[in-house]
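Need a sequence for this fold. Nothing fancy.
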């Protein structure tokens, strides 16, 4: 799953920073088909939906901090609209993710990975992913906030030591 999440993050980065056609080697239809099968076998759609559900409380908490006067009704309406909008974009994301996988793996490698995800161990892992994600998300957020705060402070001090101003 860590590799799936890492690849998912990489796919999002590719989407945000470059045109897929400009950066992607030519892929064959069998590669795309095998990559789509891998995406399906790895339960990527459910994993992304789980991530959306896990991050939603973080988004709502931020919204409440930024808009403390927002009514509960407005927050609830936002929450429903946010989730619907995120879920509506999942299928498009999965297509892009499959294209990314197809650039890194051959048809036979993609097929082998799909076999693993359909195995008993792969299925056990996939069944545990939603609970693992829900447990890891708050830990990751706390770690990220603390690590980023420290990194910003340290980097700022280093820049100042060099006589530079941010």
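Here you go.
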């Amino acid at each position: 799953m860590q590799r799936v999440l890492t690849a998912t993050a990489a796919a999002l980065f590719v989407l945000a920073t470059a045109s897929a056609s400009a950066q992607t080697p030519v892929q064959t239809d069998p590669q795309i088909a095998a990559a789509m099968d891998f995406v399906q076998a790895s339960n990527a759609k459910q994993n992304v939906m789980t991530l959306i559900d896990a991050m939603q409380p973080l988004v709502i908490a931020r919204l409440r901090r930024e808009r403390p006067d927002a009514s509960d009704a407005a927050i609830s309406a936002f929450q429903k609209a946010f989730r619907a909008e995120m879920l509506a974009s999942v299928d498009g994301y999965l297509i892009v993710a499959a294209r990314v996988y197809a650039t890194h793996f051959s048809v036979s490698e993609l097929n082998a990975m799909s076999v693993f995800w359909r195995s008993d161990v792969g299925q056990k892992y996939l069944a545990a992913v939603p609970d693992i994600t829900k447990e890891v998300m708050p830990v990751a957020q706390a770690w990220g906030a603390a690590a980023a705060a420290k990194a910003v402070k340290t980097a700022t001090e280093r820049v100042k030591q060099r006589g530079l101003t941010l």
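For context: DSSP finds eight helices and no strands in the chain.
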